[in-house]
Design a protein that fits this description.
Blueprint (H helix, E strand, L loop, with lengths): L21 H16 L2 E2 H8 L3 H14 L2 E6 L9 E5 L5 E7 L3 E8 L4 E8 L6 H18 L7 E8 L3 E2 L4 E2 L13 H9 L3 E5 H12 L8 E6 L3 E7 L2 E2 L30 H5 L1 H12 L5 H9 L3 H25 L3 E5 L1 H5 L3 H12 L8 E4 L6 H24 L5
Parallel strand pairs: 4-7, 7-10, 11-14, 14-15
Antiparallel strand pairs: 1-3, 2-3, 4-5, 5-6, 8-9, 11-12, 12-13
Helix pairs in contact: 1-3, 1-13, 2-3, 4-5, 6-13, 8-10, 9-10, 10-12
């Protein structure tokens, strides 16, 4: 094993990339390529980056000395010497994640490979006001950090996933229809001040998309979309390996595509949106109207499991409607992978198959290889993806500061 020369520099890494020596960007390019491909040999890195083999070798030595990468087996070969493969050193540092939805809040500490080292959850089953909820979330995060056993200087920061819409630039939760007590809360700043760590905020579907991209159903792909089929319907879009936010940081809102101009009024004030027709809330409203009752979405799902004809019809129609939108999405972006999660997809077994069937009927006939997959990370997708917000920041800018800081000396 090679002795690491890394210093104690960890949390709060910040960088202004002006005047950064070119060698730092070379090492960053190699590190990004390894991270994107999982692992690679020096020969493969030269081919993938266009760098000379000697440049790769020299800069890989620096990355090894810093402890940012590690040897990870050898490349299969029938002739000659086997090439050593290199991977990101997951134990170099840790990230923290907080994921909040209407059912629960989860907090976790992870390594750079997305493996959860310690986590805690808090059910959202007690009524509370804004101040009480924020206090509970902060307390959960503090307990998670303290009980994880990881020194605070090893934790690079904390990512936060919360029901949207959000303003990531200002760290502000805007007006989430399913968690109204967090309206216009500057959550990023509150978390930073309470935990003493840099924080990063994104809407829930975006962090889940990152989790599934890096460590779940869409691993190995650069382009994908995650669709959240739950009480509401949302989405997170990834293009070229990064979240695509759009001009207003709202990209991916498949739930607000209009399918029926004369359809029901949506929470967004438009009519006939996918969410207004196919969400868990829409399913529940329709079921209650048909049955003359006041059931919850949990009640409807349980009724469907007992072959209640009305519940089955409402859920089947929801899946088919979402499938129409997914088919249109495939026609628009030709994404290789679309991952579907959330309560409806996870609790109603026929849901995904019906989405696939409906999407297949609507997508162009030449589009045969696009895959519609279930979530692979289930309840941990959000908190793992929140940690990826921190990891992304570190690999984008933090490593440049590390290269310049003299930590390798």
């Amino acid at each position: 094993m090679r002795e690491s020369k890394r210093g104690k520099t960890r949390g709060g890494l910040r960088i202004q990339p002006e005047n950064v020596p070119s060698g730092c960007f070379t090492r960053k390019t190699l590190l990004d390529t390894i991270r994107r491909n999982g692992r690679a040999s020096r020969t493969q890195l030269a081919e993938l980056t266009g760098l000379t083999f000697m440049a790769v070798k020299r800069n890989m030595e620096e990355l090894l000395d810093l402890g940012l990468i590690r040897e990870d087996g050898t490349e299969p070969s029938s002739v000659g010497r086997k090439s050593v493969l290199y991977a990101v050193n997951e134990s170099f540092a840790c990230t923290a994640g907080i994921y909040i939805n209407m059912y629960e809040t989860r907090a976790a500490v992870m390594d750079l490979g997305g493996t959860i080292l310690y986590s805690k959850r808090m059910a959202m089953d007690q009524p509370c006001n804004q101040a009480e909820l924020i206090d509970r979330v902060i307390r959960l995060a503090q307990e998670t950090l303290e009980e994880s056993g990881q020194p605070r200087e090893r934790i690079l920061g904390v990512g936060i996933g919360v029901p949207g819409p959000v303003d990531p630039g200002r760290g502000l939760v805007l007006s989430p229809p399913n968690l109204t007590c967090l309206q216009y809360v500057p959550l990023r700043g509150i978390v930073e001040q309470a935990l003493g760590l840099p924080a990063f905020l994104q809407k829930d579907a975006n962090v889940i998309a990152l989790g599934e991209l890096r460590h779940g159903a869409a691993r190995g792909h650069a382009d994908m979309m995650y669709i959240y089929a739950d009480v509401g319907i949302g989405g997170g879009l990834v293009l070229n390996g990064s979240l695509y936010l759009g001009l207003n940081a709202g990209a991916g809102e498949i739930g607000h595509i209009t399918l029926d101009q004369d359809g029901p009024v949506c929470n967004c004030a438009s009519t006939g949106c996918v969410e207004a027709i196919a969400s868990g809330l829409a399913v529940t409203r329709r079921y209650n109207r048909e049955k003359g009752c006041s059931a919850s979405i949990e009640d409807v799902l349980q009724a469907a499991a007992q072959n209640d004809t009305c519940a089955v019809m409402c859920l089947n129609d929801s899946a088919r409607t979402l499938g129409i939108a997914v088919g249109s999405l495939i026609n628009l972006l030709d994404l290789p992978v679309i991952v579907i999660g959330g309560l409806l997809a996870e609790r109603y077994e026929p849901y995904l198959a019906l989405v696939r069937q409906s999407a297949t009927e609507k997508k162009l006939k030449g589009y045969r290889s696009n895959r519609i997959l279930p979530s692979a990370l289930a309840n941990n997708a959000g908190v793992i993806g929140a940690g990826e917000l921190v990891a992304d920041h570190f690999f984008k800018t933090g490593v440049l500061e590390l290269f310049q800081s003299g930590a390798a000396s």
